[in-house]
Amino acid sequence: MEKKRILIVEEELCKPIEDNALLILLDDNGIEYDIAETGAEAFGFLEKNRYDMICLDIMLEANNEGKAPKLPADLKRVDVGVYILEKLRSGAFELDGAAKDTPVVVVSAVTGYERRKKIIKLLKKEEYYIQKPTEPKEIFKAIKNILGLS
Amino acid sequence: MTTWPCHPANMSERIPEKVITLVIAGICERLKSPAQIMEINQTPNDDVDTYSYEGKKFKFFYPVSHKMTRYSDFCVALQKNEKTKKLCQNESCRRGLKALFSDTGDGAEMLRCHLGLINFAQRIEVAGHPLAVCSGGKFVIHGEYDKIRENFSKLSKSISLPPNEEKSILDLVTSIQERNETEFKSEFENEMSILQELTNHYLNTNRGREEISCRNKIVEVMSGTYNDPENFKKRLEESLTVLKEFFPVEYWAMFLSSQPDDSVLPLFVQVGFENEEIQGVHFNWRKAGLSEREKNDIKEISRGQTPAEDFQKVIERGFRGKGKEKFASALYILPITESHQGILVAGPWQNTSQVDLLNSGLGGNSFLNNIGRFFLTRAITQQALLASKKKDQDRDLMVAITAHSIRGNLHQLWNLMEIVQSRGRNPKYSEQVDRCMMGMEQVIREMKGIVERTVDDPGPAISTKITKSDMHWESNINLSALINNVAQRLNAKARDKQIIINIADEIEELPLIECDPYLIDLVFNNLVDNAIKYSSPDKEIRIYRVECDQDNVIIAIQDYGWGIAPEDFEHLFELGFRSDAPKKLVRHGAGLGCYQANIFVKLHEGNITCTSRPKFFNAPMNQYVVEFRIRLPVKVKR
Asked: Which ipTM was obtained for this model?
């Protein structure tokens, strides 16, 4: 069976990387992943790769320090995740990269009502918005469901 | 001759009286209900507005409402002269005064006047003056109209009222809005709390002196020109500019006297202004001697149906018409906003009938007092509302920042816990498990810090509210020991990044200071904690004494790592601010540390300064030396 590949967009992963329960679960289940810690890194991955799904945090840095910006420089941290999602859904990466209908799970501590409403509209399913704090197991469960894994 | 009460020569030094009148009028507007204040009368000469009770005189402050003069028959605590005393005043006055004498001041006490109208009275204290505020009388509980009419009918049998007076009172009762008693009580209590805060704030910020200064300036501008219409108009416009500088509000009425014994008739008709009490001004002015046609013109203008350029003509017609002899000069239209204009009438009265005119048509001196103050009240209450909104916003922001930080930390905790749970019993992963457990301890410490800073203590928690009187002052606090304790507490966190906290020897020789030790501990905790966060690993944080004399001590906290960008300096002490560059390093911060430290040091009349310089020419941002200097007075003037 073809291995599944996902993109994780998250800036608050533990270091070292192996101290992340979600990544351990993904490894144990043979799911491959790329990690983007900023919006610019996410863009970099999305421009070049197809993914079976994306696990997306909302609040993160837009661009990488010392590198040419890929996202608008004045984009607030709290708007970066939404910006990525909007670009994805608009087909911005479709040509050589991620498909616009790539399933997305949002995992975020952001609770603003309007922002959440906007995101759920883009996700199309409310259950794909997972509010932090939550167990890594729950996030993994959502990933498995989307990927159709038992 | 009635003298103008707002002339500086006539203004009393009892600021609370003026301010309270100002504010209560604003409250009336917001509650859409009359409100009155009772206070022990300090100026027994003024018999018009005082009430005698058990041998003491009590003074009332009236809000803006021409209807109050008609309401006096059954409104709470309004005392007329002996001849016209009517209805339920005694009963209600006693209840209102009970509120004044009440020591508990727990909340609004519901009163019913004889007619059954609802009032509330609450005792508050402003600048040490006990006041009873009574409000209401302008609403009935649902379904009680019939009962009120019945009560009125009983009472009016014992008192002879002219038939039209009886009818007009009943009409007034019928027009009173039905209100929910609980809601109104809650609104009233809220307004009382605002009243207290506003008035105290106003007094504390010497606003009364600004008001006097403003009036002095206006009088100076207007002095000696009222016989010269051309210059008078120009001066009036200048005066308006002065007033706007002091009180930026939307609506104006201005009252002037250039001589202490001038009488001034302040009137205000505003295009499109809806408030019925202000329309009442207009209606009363009609009695000042205008023809029917002119009255109707003004009425139409006040509904915003007459173009501004015609406004002048209509008013001047009125000015030239009947009643002109009562005014020496000056009826001018002044633009106030794009859509609103005001009329000012100023000048000395020509005959002795003005007292009658004022009393009968316009509700007496109180009316004159209040109309101008009403607008100043709007200024104060609007500004206070804005300030209050800003405080709420700051508080909301602090809560939001804290909640977000705690969520992030809890999520990390769950992550680490899951690894410990799943791998804890497998010796193969013992190193990882140890690391995760240490990580959990660090996260818990971080959360503890956030919670302690923002949730537990309501004083420092919402530090925008803490004042010197909330602080717990102690003398002879050993600052050296305090700094050492902070360093010791944060040592474990520093060690995780292989950072050494180096306390210079001269820190042991700091003077004993007077301070709130809890707050100063938080100051050093926050700044050293920040230094650890932003410091590069394997570096040193230095705490040393910069300067020390009998008055002040200056301590520096220096770290080597991420610098502060020049554009960030002005925001450094703002709530929620975190410099952009090193966010990767600062995972769990909430942007509260510098903000709080700054507030607490300022409360001690000290200050914090910050410098950030590259270690060497053209050094990257992660090779900067950042230093915070905290200056604390040895003794604080409280």
From this structure: 0.84
